[in-house]
Amino acid sequence: MENSFIRIKCKFCEKGEMFYNQSLTFYDYSLPENFVLDDITNLVDGILNEYLVYECNYCGSIEKLTYKEIEKNERHRISQLVIDSAARGEIESAINSRKPTALIYCGRCNGANGKGACPISVYKKCELKWLPNEL
Prior knowledge:
Layout: E1 8-9, E2 17-20, H1 22-30, H2 40-44, E3 51-56, E4 62-66, H3 67-87, H4 90-96, E5 103-105, E6 117-119, H5 120-125
């Protein structure tokens, strides 16, 4: 079993996590009904069908998932975490404590924003602003 870059909760037991299984994926693609010789150009190019086979580390269930399905599930999970955190008031304090950022343009260098402007704290300490224009 190999690790996934995203944790996927098992739909069947809801206790385990689904992990990409390379050997099961290979086996599934090598079945006669899935291996079509007419698609040999796709196989030579390294492009298999869209899904990969995942296995639960708790109950052993097997599921075929596409990257689009994994991404959709992860986006839904993150959205739910944000909603839950906002409902508990955990996010509001982080948002309210954020200070507005003011930039000052002097044009002596590329600046923090890449256009010659820096935050006030950097501008106050900067020695380049005192250099003559000729340099």
